[in-house]
Amino acid sequence: MPSISNQPLPGEYPHYSQRYIELVPEEQIVGALVHNKHEIEELLLQIPDDKWDFRYAPEKWTLKEAVIHVLDTERIMAYRALRMSRHDPTPLAGFEQDDFIPYVHAEKRSPMSIREEWNALRDSSIHVFMYLEPDDLSFIGTAAGYPFSVRALGYFIAGHARYHERIIRERYLV
User: Fold this and answer.
1) Is residue 9 part of a domain?
2) What are φ and ψ of residue 62, in 5° steps?
């Protein structure tokens, strides 16, 4: 496995991604994804059953919906990273997270199914990045009209999960 290091630089990702990317101090993206997998796995195991359907405010997502949002976002970002890591110049479409929520069917999901999906998805995401070469990681494609390098997408994935981990701890598990 090549050494996959170096945080993305401004210009490799849109400004809105900065708040996620800055939450990942690790220099190696695969290591960050593995470490973050265990952080989130521990969090998901700590959530009491009666909290999964909790909303911290009216019109906010339930905790289940918030976690499924993290899953959906990771799946989309990993797909983008896969396409771009193959040096595909095709601009990729954006997505509207709030439009997805009515169709995640969170009420039908058990906490165990969500935890299992987390582990399977993160393992898959790790494998997307595991054997990439430096030129693959530095390839810049377009997603939702913005430039993204492959490595920035990896840092986005880990940082987005950490961002929502903090929200879950501060707003849902109080």
Assistant:
1) no
2) -70, 165
Does 1 map to a domain?
no
1 falls in which pLDDT band (50, 70, 90)?
very low
Per the CB < 8 A criterion, the answer to whether 125 and 158 are in contact is no
CA pair distance 43, 114, nearest whole angstrom: 12
Domain count, the chain: 1
Residue pair 69/146 in contact by the 8 Å Cβ criterion? no
Surface-to-core class of residue 149, CB atoms within 10 Å of its CB (0-12 exposed, 13-18 middle, 19+ buried):
buried
Single-letter residue type at 106: A
Q: Is the dihedral of CA 146, 131, 78, 54 positive or negative?
A: negative
Q: What is the CATH number of the domain that holds 154?
A: 1.20.120.450
Q: Label residue 5 by pLDDT band (50, 70, 90).
A: low
Domain carrying residue 42 = 16-172
| Its pTM surpasses 0.85 | yes
- Report the distance separating Cα 85 and Cα 134, nearest Å: 10
Whether 112 is covered by a domain: the verdict is: yes
For residue 6, what pLDDT is reported? 80
